[in-house]
Amino acid sequence: MNGVLNQLALYRELEPAVGASLDRHRLARSSWSPEDYVRPESYWGHTRPMLTETAKAALVTTLLTHNNTARSDRGNAQAPSRSAWSNWMDEWTAEKNFHADAIQRYLVATRSVDPIALDRARFQCMTIGIDSSMEGDHLLRSIAHATVDVMATMVSHRNTAVECNDPIATALLGRIVADQELHVAFHRDIAAAALDIAPAQTVKAITEVIMNFQMPGSGLPGFGRSAMLLGRDGIYDLRRHLDEVLLPSLRDWRIFERTDLGAGERSRATLSDFLDDLEKQATHFERVRLRTRAHDAERLRAS
Fold first, then answer.
1. Helix, strand, coil % (nearest 5) of the chain?
2. 31 three-class SS
3. Cβ-contact 230, 58 below 8 angstroms
């Protein structure tokens, strides 16, 4: 489709794809309850919290980002009422809140957090949200951002399950990841439909999102320390962000194979240069981490 589409036109053109994807999502998802996985009595008798600081940081961060309903509401602000998109946003927000409740149940059961402090933090996220310039009322950026954001959270969940070293955490986070795979499939497919409808606009939005993306939880109190722990222990770092989140999405959308981008060619070239630079940064970070680990191991042997 030629020309630049305004927001309402994009909603209208994408409505059939959103409706079909929402129907598929409803058929594919399965119901479950946190009680199926987390039973507080399983942890009775433990004299101290069993989770590492890294595992706790990862779980608390992802709980608060799951719980950020204020952000989702803003992203839904311009959607036509009773549209497939507004229905999706309502259901997706509800599912994210359900995941947050399940994670909180696990954290409280393992006595890894102060329940009152955690409730206060959740309330803060619900009332003021976590702002991102790549979301809000820009539909194409919101779709691209949601894809990258959920994939990043999935990667974090998978590695957090290993860090927890607890079969209950492994089962619970695996169940959440299964739901998130459906969320990613939805957003990826809508982004693919947008690329067919408005290729130049969509590749520009994807480029903007990727170049400005911040890890889920950026802006939360204490996030700097949490990000350090997650990167240090391999839960989520630049290499994982590039190899397990960005590149799979771009391959799925065939960004570097398309011949219909028109003015979007400039955005694609910019994106290519950015990815090359990200590769250099990820390689440098890995080298620094390996040197640090070797130094720490040597110091431990000498002590």
1. 75, 0, 25
2. coil
3. yes
- Could you tell me which of 214, 196, 201, 186 has the C-alpha nearest to residue 138? 201
Task: Give me 301's structure tokens.
Answer: 């042997």
User: What is the DSSP code string of 98-143?
Assistant: HHHHHHHHHHHHTT-S-HHHHHHHHHHHHHH----TTSTT-HHHHH
Greatest extent of the chain over all pairs of C-alpha atoms, in Å: 68
Tokens of 100: 């947050």
By CB atoms closer than 10 A (0-12, 13-18, 19+), residue 128 is exposed
Cα–Cα distance for residue pair 206/211, rounded to 1 Å: 9
Of residues 124, 95, 119, the one with CA closest to residue 107: 119
Collect all residues with Cβ–Cβ distance below 8 Å to 292 and sequence separation of at least 6.
Answer: none
- How long, in residues, is the chain? 303
- Dihedral, CA of residue 189, residue 195, residue 201 and residue 207, to nearest 10: 70
Sequence-distant (≥ 6) Cβ neighbours of residue 73 within 8 angstroms:
89, 93
Enumerate residues 6+ apart whose C-beta is below 8 A from 246: 148, 210, 275, 278
Q: Taking CA 248 as the corner, what is the angle to CA 54 and CA 225, rounded to the nearest 5 degrees?
A: 20
Which residue is associated with the tokens 């040597």?
298
pLDDT truncated to tens, each residue of the chain (303 aa)?
556 889 989 999 999 999 999 999 999 999 999 989 988 787 776 666 678 899 988 998 888 777 554 344 444 556 666 789 989 999 998 999 899 889 999 998 888 888 887 777 776 666 544 444 444 458 999 999 999 999 999 999 999 999 999 999 999 999 999 999 999 999 999 999 999 999 999 999 999 999 998 765 556 666 678 778 888 888 899 999 999 999 999 999 999 999 999 999 999 999 999 999 999 999 998 888 778 777 767 777 777
Neighbour count for residue 144 (Cβ, 10 Å) = 30
